[in-house]
Design a protein that fits this description.
Elements (H helix, E strand, L loop, with lengths): L1 E6 L3 H17 L2 E8 L10 E4 L2 E4 H19 L8 E7 L2 H12 L3 E6 L4 H7 L2 H8 L4 E5 L15
Parallel strand pairs: 1-2, 1-6, 2-5, 6-7
Antiparallel strand pairs: 3-4
Length: 159
């Protein structure tokens, strides 16, 4: 069995990866962790930047940075243990790239975090998790962000 875990390198995604590793151990499954960095629609792939080593294609530089960040992210997750894990980075529109990856990779399950955005933020930013739930050819488990709100002591109101 193969499980796909799309991440954005947030702390919440560490919780998602921990949940996915528990599922993977129970099902004797492998995990693939995928990060997709969003590219601007009119971004030219020929764009280069000057580095101390000389000119370098911006896409190559971004890819190398994403790979380094993936390694750092996986290192922060102390929950994987003996679970087989592959990592992947890609660029483009996250929902489309993730759906393509699901189909091409032969995954059986997707486990993705939700950030619980609502209202205008949801309308403007959209929801990768929501699109995956609607369009994925395989089951999707969503893991909500933990609420770490400070709760004031419940005292009766004084009049």
């Amino acid at each position: 069995m193969k499980i796909l875990v799309p991440v954005d390198y947030s702390d919440h995604c560490l919780d998602v990866l921990e949940f996915a590793s528990d599922i993977a151990r129970a099902l004797n499954a492998a995990i693939s962790v995928l990060y997709v960095w969003e590219t601007m629609p009119h971004f030219s792939p020929e764009l280069s930047v000057t580095t101390p080593a000389g000119p370098r294609p911006l896409m190559e530089l971004v890819h190398d940075t994403a790979e380094r960040e993936m390694k750092e992210f996986i290192t922060r997750c102390n929950c994987l243990g003996s679970v087989p894990v592959e990592t992947h980075v890609d660029s483009g529109a996250a929902p489309s790239k993730i759906l393509q990856f699901i189909t091409k990779g032969g995954f059986d399950l997707v486990i993705v975090g939700t950030h619980g955005r609502g209202g205008v933020k949801h309308l403007v930013l959209g929801s990768v998790a929501e699109r995956l739930v609607r369009l994925s050819p395989v089951p999707v488990i969503t893991v909500p962000a933990r609420r770490r709100a400070v709760v004031a002591s419940a005292r009766p109101a004084s009049h």
